[in-house]
Amino acid sequence: MDYALPAADGYHVGVFIKTTSPQTVELLGGTGLDFAVIDAEHAPFDRTSLDLAMLAGRAAQLPLFVRVLERNASGLLSVLDMGAAGVLVPHVDTAEQAREVVAHCRYVGGDRGYSSSPRAAGYGALGMKEAIRRGDRNVVVAQIESAQAVEEAANIAAVPGVAGLFIGRADLALSMGLDNAQDERVGAATERVIRVSLAAGKVVGMFVGSTAEREKYRALGVSWFVQGSDQSLLRQGAQAIARPRQA
């Protein structure tokens, strides 16, 4: 499914999907979200559940990204063939790794294998030229989540084909020897990545836990937000109606 990142003066909001129910994707498609990210890195998605999620996303007109388990060629090929709008790639620490990821996601100038049979190629109906044209529009977002990646962020952002940088503050904290993603040192590293990404003309993405936090980072130029998940939305909704418990 085609997806365009937010314009310079706009922003997009999505959620992580961590449960393997296509009905969840279908439901979220009717809420006004701009996109969602299937979290295949941390949730129990296999190829069948990913494919069902993609089918539901198409039906509900909800663009789906996949946070892949690994950045290898076969894993990226698989989710793009299923019809993902793009990929969120964890632990991209160097420009060389970013170039490899982009190559795995591109037909022209890359090494993505071609088949006319998957959903992304219209099950053979598009023809090779059109399938390649559409396939090379997928969005590649590199996740910055280590101290090394912060140091390399400007070089990663400069790689052609990298559409944006997504700051993973929890793993970034761990790589800095910290156990708090809100630590001021993580905040300083986050703002550094924001600055270099914007200077390169690339979109900046983040996970945020609240609308107030989203607005804080919008003011700094972040425009691609993953705010919560299907799990957290379900928990919050249930807690809101639960009978108060006596101490």
Q: Would you report the number of β strands?
A: 8
Which structural class is indicated by helix and strand composition?
A: alpha/beta
Q: Overall pLDDT, averaged?
A: 96
- What is the string of SSEs from the N terminus onward? EHEHEHEHHEHEHHEHEH
Count the helices. How many? Answer: 10
* Main β-sheet description: 8 strands, parallel, barrel
β-sheet strand percentage: 15-25%
Report how far apart the termini are: 50 Å
Percent of residues in helices comes to: 40-55%
C-alpha Rg (nearest Å) = 18 Å
Q: Which segments are poorly predicted (pLDDT under 50) over 5 or more consecutive residues?
A: none
What is the topology, as strand order, of the major beta sheet?
A: 1-2-3-4-5-6-7-8
> Globular, elongated, flat, extended or rod-shaped: what is the shape?
globular
Describe what this molecule looks like in 3D.
The structure is a single chain. With 247 residues, the chain is an alpha/beta fold. The chain contains 10 helices and 8 strands. Strands 1-2-3-4-5-6-7-8 form an 8-stranded parallel β-barrel, surrounded by 8 helices. α1 (22-28) links the parallel β1 (12-17) and β2 (35-39). The mean pLDDT is 96.
